[in-house]
Design goal:
twelve-stranded mixed sheet, 15 helices, globular, cytoplasm
């Protein structure tokens, strides 16, 4: 689990509870879900925290939660932000792999050694968690007085987010005295070598310029010219990434931490070159001729609806509606009572979520907060109303039984990867996603696959079995293989958007394998489960015409059976005939 280092003296100062002893603080922190893991060499608390509460990655965030816990703060607090004076212009040359940017100007911040160290820790912890080690989002913090913005059309100082050549303009990076090009930073600078893999494959590297030149090379390193110190009073915070929502939420957490130090926030205008460069659902945006404009930070609140009955059911206690409202306010939320349901009798709450809470995705997250505010230690344990005995799920029992029968019929049981490539799933077995045949369908693809061999969830099991036969040509025949595994296709009718099913697939490979052999095994399997089997003729590109049939169980078409087409055999370097079948496991219930 990730940890964060918190100075107990600084925590006492920010919470206004100077009288709290260390042991009392540890107990209070545990009530928030922060477990004490020990002390650092400097005497700071080393706390293990739940990775969903990223707002507690700094002492400011922890102190805010404790003030709510103590009742010293209530409800949703949204810091004010002055109108924008600075503009970030996103150029067309920005690498398409990292097109998004956000930012804020922070004025009148009082930085001492402790607060600067806390800010740096927050930056690095956000990099490691929400920023996915800077791959999804990276933070740059600069001394605003060292920036010179170009004159903009509306008179605001402007900086540019652009793409540069690896051997482009030179700048002096942090922890260096030499001017280096971006390419040289990746080769010669320790930090550059650490994060080189994030941008090394780009044709152009991300870079941020002011009127004096390049001062930030995200997500790798900042320039030395704008380095922040304890003498810095005005800051410019910029974040770049692969997703606008992610960097906007990271920015909100930083804004709240700095506002807790008494700083004043000032909005920044983001001008994208075209409307496709910003997320379509970004708040606070307006489209202008030739581009899209955002105003950041986005400190808008969200709402979740949760019913009173569900709160009491989950927590196992009776609560007065006013008590629910009180618990919400003590959690840093706000709850407004409303009548809900078709008959209007059900009591529900519209719960307001503050901008820094990136973890509240479901009404159960709200109930968890209410339970913590009430005090989980104050909940009385009790036995469930219904006693149950653990056992296998019906689907698991069916799967186990079918697997045993397949082994009894002479098949070797396999367990293949559920992920596959488009070529293996479609092209090499002669079908396409648009075909109206068993095994086709629109696939659930992986957005950023780690390998070209695993880019989607397979839509049927037979291609996986053919891959195994292809790799086993050096082994003796016959090879009778079977697998019970997952197959999936996109389906808007499903809540998840994906129709996921378990399939029974089998192949028989030998010098005399034929349709009759496959059907005999399938008939034996169906008799064991007392279902009626029919095999009317059909056509399928993977199988030989005239030697192919549909698998119809109890009057419902659930699969296909036949002899594999010679083209498919040649594609898989197989020199013996192959017959097989595949159908939905649920048909045997």
């Amino acid at each position: 689990m990730p940890t964060v280092d918190i100075d107990p003296d600084e925590l006492r100062e920010l919470t206004g509870r100077e009288e709290k002893r260390d042991e009392e603080l540890k107990e209070d922190l545990f009530g928030l879900g922060l477990e004490f893991e020990g002390r650092t060499e400097e005497g700071a608390f080393e706390l293990e925290f739940a990775p969903d509460r990223l707002d507690r990655l700094s002492v400011e965030g922890v102190a805010r939660s404790m003030r709510y816990q103590y009742g010293d703060a209530r409800g949703v607090h949204v810091p004010s932000a002055n109108s924008p004076e600075w503009t970030i212009v996103v150029d067309d040359s920005v690498p398409e792999e990292r097109p998004y940017v956000t930012g804020v100007v922070v004025r009148d911040v009082d930085l001492d050694e402790e607060s600067l160290e806390s800010l740096i820790q927050l930056q690095e912890k956000l990099h490691a968690t929400m920023g996915r080690k800077r791959a999804k989002g990276a933070i740059g913090i600069h001394d605003l007085t060292m920036l010179k913005g170009s004159a903009a059309t509306e008179g605001n100082p402007t900086i540019e987010y652009v793409g540069v050549e690896p051997d482009g303009d030179r700048f002096v990076p942090l922890d260096s005295d030499a001017e280096l090009t971006p390419g040289e930073v990746l080769e010669d600078h320790p930090t550059g070598r650490t994060y080189a893999d994030l941008v090394s494959e780009y044709e152009r590297y991300p870079a941020i310029y002011d009127d004096l030149g390049l001062f930030s090379f995200p997500p790798v390193i900042n320039g030395r010219r704008t380095e922040v110190s304890t003498d810095s009073r005005d800051l410019f915070v910029e974040m770049t990434g692969t997703d606008q929502w992610t960097i906007d939420k990271m920015l909100n957490i930083v804004c709240y931490a700095l506002a807790a130090r008494g700083a004043t926030l000032e909005e920044v205008t983001i001008e994208y070159a075209d409307s496709e460069s910003a997320n379509a659902d970004s708040n606070g945006s307006r489209t202008q001729s030739g581009g899209r404009e955002l105003v950041r930070p986005d400190l808008s609140t969200k709402t979740k609806t949760v019913s009173h009955d569900r709160i009491e059911t989950i927590l196992g206690i009776d609560l007065d509606p006013d008590e629910v409202v009180d618990l919400a306010e003590r959690s840093g939320l706000e709850a407004e009572k409303r009548d809900g349901g078709d008959d209007g009798d059900e009591l529900v709450y519209e719960v307001t979520i503050p901008p820094y809470r990136v973890d509240v995705l479901h009404p159960l997250d709200v109930i968890d907060d209410l339970g913590r505010a009430y005090g989980f230690n104050d909940l009385e344990p009790k036995y469930p109303d219904v006693g149950t005995v653990g056992g296998r799920h019906e689907r698991s029992r069916l799967e186990r039984s079918v697997r045993e029968q397949l082994v009894g019929l002479g098949f070797e049981d396999l367990l293949n990867f559920h992920m596959i490539s488009e070529a293996e799933n479609y092209d090499r077995v002669g079908i396409s996603p648009d075909d109206d045949v068993f095994g086709a369908g629109e696939p659930a693809t992986i957005k950023e696959p780690y390998s070209e061999d695993y880019t989607m969830l397979r839509t049927w099991v037979t291609p996986s079995l053919m891959m195994v036969l292809e790799r086993n040509t050096h082994r003796a025949y016959p090879q009778d293989l079977a697998e019970i595994g997952v197959a999936a296709v996109l389906d808007d009718a499903e809540n998840t958007g994906v129709d996921e099913r378990r399939r029974v697939g089998a192949v028989l490979a030998s010098h005399d394998a034929g349709y009759e052999d496959a059907k005999a095994r399938l008939q034996a399997l169906c008799r064991r489960f007392d279902v009626d089997l029919e095999t009317p003729p059909t056509e399928h590109p993977t199988y030989i015409p005239g030697r192919t049939a549909s698998v119809v169980v109890d009057g419902e078409e659930v699969g296909v059976i036949g002899e594999i087409h010679p083209k498919v055999l040649v594609e898989h370097d197989l020199e013996v005939p192959v017959a097989g079948f595949e159908f939905d496991l649920a048909a045997l219930r």
